[in-house]
Amino acid sequence: MPRASLLCALLLACAHQAAPADSAPPTAPAPAEVDPCAAAPVPGDSTKALARADVLLRCGDDAGALAVRFALLRRDYGSTARAYALAMLAHESGQGPEFDATVADLPLTAAARAVYRLARDVSNYLDAVARLSEEAGKPGEAGVDGSILARDVAAALAVAGEDPYALSLALRFTAVHDNDPRERAAPICRDRADPLLSRLRDREGAAVLAGACGRIAFHSGEPIDGRRRFARALELSPRDHAAAIAWAAAELAAGNLREALRLYELAAGAPSPRLRYAAFLGLGVTHARRHERDAAEAAYRSAAAVRGLDTAAPDRLPPELSFNLGALLADTNDPAARTEARGLLRAYVADPRADDRRRLRARILLRELGD
């Protein structure tokens, strides 16, 4: 072989040996992270659309969640369930009045319209009653016209008598409006709700109705029946956080602190900020009664954070939160905590929404704090 040819052969062999046997493929770029809170079209599938509304709630986008609910209601004008969900969501986000006109323009069925109106009015009524003390919390004293509510109850039941959402709202109003729920509300659960529950295919609607009758049972002095009904509601719909909160409040009132704690912790994961606030507030009260001071303080501060508030600005806090946290911090020897307690209790005393009995207690605590 000529010398030049041999040299070329050797060079080619060396080059072949130097090349890697299996060259690694180029690294693919990492997929861009999907932002679940970013704007996106409303899914065509109703189940996926409802899941999208829940995601938007968790993102704090109440308006976006409402838009999804409106889209669903436009697709199905006869859906009383969606009308109910829309009214409750609008109320929880504080945007109810802004959407009444929009709902009025939708070509809803009479049943859906009646349930929407009833849900809105009952929610407003219950909120008003909750702000009053037990002595003042009677129909007609909550700033709401009981006759208007009675009309809405009658209208909803007339056109949607077999609808669990309309019936549950009627029960909630009846229970608060009557001095003794055993007179009218409890028989409605027995004679109308129970037969309806036995044949309902709508699990969410059945859960709402079972939870409503659970409240009635506790208020009627039937805790065993109340627990059975609430357990059924959560079995049907594990994400029925409103039922969990109502059950927790009933157990708290009965002194069953361990069960109240379990249920409030369950509800603390609710997508609705309004329900999370109620859950954390209940957790604070429950921990305080269990003499778990640090846990109670943490729960109260979480309740403020859910509302986007800071305990450093006590005049902006809801009155029940400023009183509970102030009373908790007053019972300590820490100077900083006692200083914060003074600010919280002063804010409560000055709040026109304050309960007279608690206002007196707050003034006594302020005197004890040297104020």
UniProtKB/TrEMBL annotation:
Keyword set for this entry?
Signal
The UniProt record lists the keyword Signal: yes
Tell me the first and last residues of the signal peptide.
1-18
Instruction: Tell me what this protein is called.
Output: Tetratricopeptide repeat protein
Which classification does the entry list for the species?
A: Bacteria, Pseudomonadati, Myxococcota, Polyangia, Nannocystales
